[in-house]
Write a structure and sequence with these properties.
It contains nine helices and 16 strands. The protein is α/β, with parallel strands linked by helices and about 290 residues long. It has one domain: Vaccinia Virus protein VP39 (Rossmann fold, 3-Layer(aba) Sandwich), CATH 3.40.50. It is globular and about 50 Å long. The mean pLDDT is about 95.
């Protein structure tokens, strides 16, 4: 991907205030990245090592996931998060990836030197993820766990959305799942155990993020940073109220990663970007 070879990730670290989707720079970068991906080797099903900027090479064979595919995992919002991982390669050490999918975030975090424990309950995604760990030579840095994360240990029904498997979720996390659905029971691990001694987490839990975040013991937030995708307006309000009461900061991509001053600053869906949660005074975009 040529754009990645030309220091895209380093450049993104210097313009964090322009990461909001409504900015002109975002629109330009989104078009450039998409055009580059259209002709990249990530569209091949072959096991090709593709140059990927400061991360070295990356092998992510093409895979169809219903209405979307593995190319969609390289959207600009994801590239922004990848640049954040790189900017903090000397800051974080023990990290978790909740909702690992095919493992792209986990692999890139491992390439930054993090020790990554990754949670993915989907049968098919988990097997593809394990294969990609080996393809990218990060087996010593990534521990894959076939489980979901919630507020307590046990089992839960999992709903696989066959028309878009990135939207699969624990039963009850979404009010109206659509299309062809496959249901089966998965292992669930308690957030209190998952987040112990962790200093950074990426959470993409398809509507279950509030349950996970509120199950993290309050004292953990003294040394824990999290980036999360917020699924609904209702979840946004619950997150805002909860962390405001805890005096833990919320930093929104929607506002160029500024600290949220009101509920309106919180993203209400993936279309408004991610949310960074931290007890620090700002989101760290430099070493």
């Amino acid at each position: 991907m040529k754009i990645a070879q030309n220091t895209l990730f380093e450049a993104l670290q210097t313009v964090s205030e322009q990461h909001a989707r409504h900015t002109p720079l975002y629109a330009v970068l989104e078009t450039c990245c998409y055009d580059s991906l259209k002709t990249s080797d990530f569209r091949s099903k072959e096991e090709i090592q593709v140059p990927f900027g400061p991360f070295g090479t990356l092998c992510m064979p093409y895979h169809k996931m219903g209405a979307i595919d593995s190319i969609d995992l390289f959207g600009l919002d994801e590239l922004i998060l990848f640049s954040f991982y790189h900017a903090n390669r000397n800051r974080y050490r023990q990290v978790v990836d909740i909702g690992a999918n095919l493992g792209l975030h986990s692999i890139l975090m491992a390439k930054c030197g993090f020790n990554v424990t990754s949670y993915e309950p989907d049968d098919i995604h988990f097997d593809l993820f394990k294969a990609r760990i080996a393809l990218n030579d990060v087996s010593g840095k990534v521990t894959p766990v076939k489980a979901a994360v919630s507020d307590e240990n046990g089992e839960s029904e999992f709903i696989r959305v066959e028309g878009n498997t990135t939207g699969s979720h624990l039963a009850g996390a979404k009010s109206d799942p659509y299309g062809d659905l496959t249901r089966y029971v998965v292992k669930v691990l308690a957030a209190e155990d998952v987040f112990k001694n962790v200093d950074f987490a990426k959470i993409d839990a398809e509507g279950h993020e509030v349950v996970i975040l509120k199950a993290v013991p309050k004292e953990y937030w003294q040394n824990l940073d999290v980036v999360v995708e917020v699924g609904t307006a209702e979840n946004a309000k619950e997150i805002y109220d909860y962390f405001t009461a805890l005096d833990v900061g919320l930093f929104s991509q929607k506002t160029g990663w500024q600290k949220a001053a009101t509920l309106e600053d919180i993203p209400v869906s993936y279309k408004e970007g991610s949310l960074f949660i931290s007890s620090n005074s700002k989101m760290p975009w430099s070493e």
